[in-house]
């Protein structure tokens, strides 16, 4: 099958994501749901009412990622992606995602200034809707690398690995201007205990034993599911909530020891013949 197929009608039943045809595949169509641009990044009373009406459109039929209790589901609604826990009961305390969303907004602003030929999503809304933290963003056209992976040749996989390394080099060129400690752009004061990251990741990022002087900017979640591809090119990079000034070695350690991967081949993204440690 064509790795970059986006038409749900053409996806074989043997596909790993056949039961989630909206996951990781998108080709824009004129009839797709689109936002009212007058409400972009607005928290006025009218805008909050509008964004609440958008969230109300999100049900199980368009849910592409069901979260555990306390987390947020992910929905694909036409040209947008929505992260919200509104289908969950309030019997569990929701993780405070306000810092994660603020970090994503700032990280995307940084990435826009350095990435060449790779798109990042526009953030349309980040805030509270009916007491729940909601993030609404642009849905990038293309196919997630994780979805395309089973249909790629080894040469194609190697090419994507080299392209991802090029992205790492671009990000590594950005250094912090007002801090000399490893940190997310927007620090979460409760990140050690609120369930956003695993204890192992916290120790890798923030332990005093980590004395690496490199504090360059990193996406810090460069898994196959977050890379959007088309026609043998990486065309987009999503999910910037974990980004920060961590340095290449530290991000590589998180990548190897914490992040899930489709294969050992991608787990070694920061290794092998990649000479970027400066």
From TrEMBL:
InterPro entries: AGP_Transferase, Aminoglycoside_PTrfase, Kinase-like_dom_sf. It holds the Pfam family APH. Coiled coil: none annotated. Residues 105-244 form the Aminoglycoside phosphotransferase domain. SUPFAM superfamilies: Protein kinase-like (PK-like). PANTHER family: AMINOGLYCOSIDE PHOSPHOTRANSFERASE DOMAIN-CONTAINING PROTEIN, AMINOGLYCOSIDE PHOSPHOTRANSFERASE-RELATED-RELATED. This is Aminoglycoside phosphotransferase domain-containing protein. The lineage of its organism: Eukaryota, Fungi, Dikarya, Ascomycota, Pezizomycotina.
């Amino acid at each position: 099958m064509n790795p970059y197929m986006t038409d749900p009608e053409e996806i074989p039943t043997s596909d790993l994501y056949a039961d989630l045809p909206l996951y990781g595949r998108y080709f824009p169509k004129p009839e797709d749901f689109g936002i009212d641009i007058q409400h972009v990044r607005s928290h006025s009373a009218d805008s909050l009412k509008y964004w609440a009406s958008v969230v109300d459109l999100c049900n199980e039929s368009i849910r592409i990622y069901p979260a555990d209790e306390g987390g947020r589901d992910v929905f694909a609604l036409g040209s947008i992606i929505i992260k919200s826990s509104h289908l969950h009961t309030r019997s569990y305390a929701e993780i405070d995602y306000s810092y994660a969303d603020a970090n994503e907004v700032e990280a995307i602003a940084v990435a826009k200034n350095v990435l060449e030929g790779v798109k990042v999503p526009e953030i349309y809304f980040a805030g509270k809707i009916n007491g729940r933290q909601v993030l609404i963003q642009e849905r990038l056209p293309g196919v997630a690398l994780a979805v395309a992976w089973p249909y790629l040749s080894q040469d194609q996989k190697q090419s994507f690995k080299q392209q991802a390394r090029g992205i790492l080099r671009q990000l590594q060129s950005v250094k912090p201007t007002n801090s000399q400690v490893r940190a997310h752009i927007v620090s979460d004061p409760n990140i050690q205990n609120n369930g956003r990251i695993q204890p192992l990741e916290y120790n890798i990022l923030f332990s005093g034993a980590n004395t690496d002087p490199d504090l360059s900017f990193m996406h810090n979640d460069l898994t196959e599911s977050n890379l959007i591809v088309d026609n043998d090119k990486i065309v987009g990079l999503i999910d910037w909530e974990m980004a920060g000034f961590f340095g290449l070695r530290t991000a590589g350690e998180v990548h190897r020891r914490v992040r899930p991967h489709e294969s050992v081949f991608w787990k070694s993204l920061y290794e092998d013949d990649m000479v970027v440690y400066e």
